[in-house]
Amino acid sequence: xxILYSIWNFAKxxxxxxxxxxxxxxQIAPINIDPWTVILRWLGKGLNGNLxxxxxxxxxDVVEMKKDFDSKIIDDMRWHILExxxxxxxxxxxxxxxxxxxxxxxxxxxSYARKAGLINGVMIxxxxxxxxxxxxxxxxxxxx
Length: 144
Known about the structure:
Blueprint lengths: L1 H12 L1 H14 L6 H55 L6 H21 L4 H20 L4
């Protein structure tokens, strides 16, 4: 009995230890209340709030840069295809490797355009022209 009385007096004289002990017991008990996690999460948010804001900004900047990069890649592809087509229309002849590259780039462009929902009437017509011309050249084996 003296032990319980001593514990009671110690707890009465040291309420902060009583609070910490109670929180620890609540966390250990099979109850879905986890006060330490809540307290530590609150402290973490307070200490790292600015860092999280900077990470969010950095993440949005990376997404924007990826969009710009993809746009640049597709734009370069489109120009290369248009230049190749224009060169063919002006009587230019090409090697088999140049044709393979142009046709594969055209297929990649069309795949991207389909996924992105891009509709470009000029590219549709140039695609038809290049595919028909490539078919004719393959049949005749008329590569440079």
